[in-house]
Amino acid sequence: MQITLQNAGKRFSREWIFRNLNYSFSPGIKYAITGPNGSGKSTLLQVLSGSLVLNEGTSEWLINDTNIQPDKVHLYISIAAPYFELIEEMTAKEFLFFHSNFKKYISHFSVEYILQEAGLSHAANKQIRFFSSGMKQRLKLAQAVFSDVPVILLDEPCTNLDTSGFDLYYKWVENYCKNRLLIISSNDKNEYSFCDREISLQDYKFKKSPVII
Question: N or C: which end of the chain has fewer CB within 10 A?
């Protein structure tokens, strides 16, 4: 999938988060969206996912020159973010099976294999509400990375991960994200040092200005 933004702008109330953003995101390339806390990185990621609508400009999603309508974009994208909650009453195994009803996993990987890859086999039948923050993050990343979709969006992907969690993250990016469009939102260089392109939201920031309604 290729995602293109033209003269894109997003505001909340009277404050522009970004404006005049022209960019094309192409498959097989890793992108980093950077900027300090509160700069709008997560907002841009949600625009790219189709879950937020621009206030000005256009967004376009293409697969093999076929335009994907905004209400169908979610079928082609997986996302992991701190603000997306897990269903904590489920076990890890139940959650991954539940997720597979909406998006199949790559290479027909089984839920058991994915749990093993995530280092969570020992907790497969444990309710997620009893997981540590690091275990929850591994599960979030697993459902995103192993979904059979052309686009992966990761917002602060290594939140709450220890050294072994970082190693697992790097391994998954290297092994499973090569031919897909990967976009990472972060202000931590360790999370995106391998990216091919970097988009700094500071280049598209505008001070608060009057908005004519």
Answer: C
CATH code 3.40.50.1100 for 2-204: no
Q: Would you list the domain boundaries of the chain?
A: 2-204
Nearest CA to 29 out of 165, 152, 189, 203 is that of: 152
Cα first-last separation, the chain = 35
pLDDT digits (tens, 9 = 90+) for 121-163: 999 999 999 999 999 999 999 999 999 999 999 999 999 999 9
Q: How far is CA 29 from the centre of its chain?
A: 14
Cβ pair 5, 57 in contact under 8 A: yes
Cα dihedral 125, 126, 129, 133 sign: negative
Indicate the pTM of the whole model.
0.92
Helices (H) and strands (E) in the chain, counts: 6, 9
Return the ∠ at Cα 98 (arms to 171 and 173), rounded to 5°: 15
Strand 181-185's sheet: what is its strand order? 77-80, 151-155, 181-185, 30-34, 197-200
DSSP secondary structure code for residue 187 in this structure: S
CA 7 to chain centroid: 22
Amino acid 129 reads R
Q: CA angle at residue 33 from 103 to 58, to 5 degrees?
A: 75
Task: In whole angstroms, give the CA distance from residue 119 to residue 104.
Answer: 20
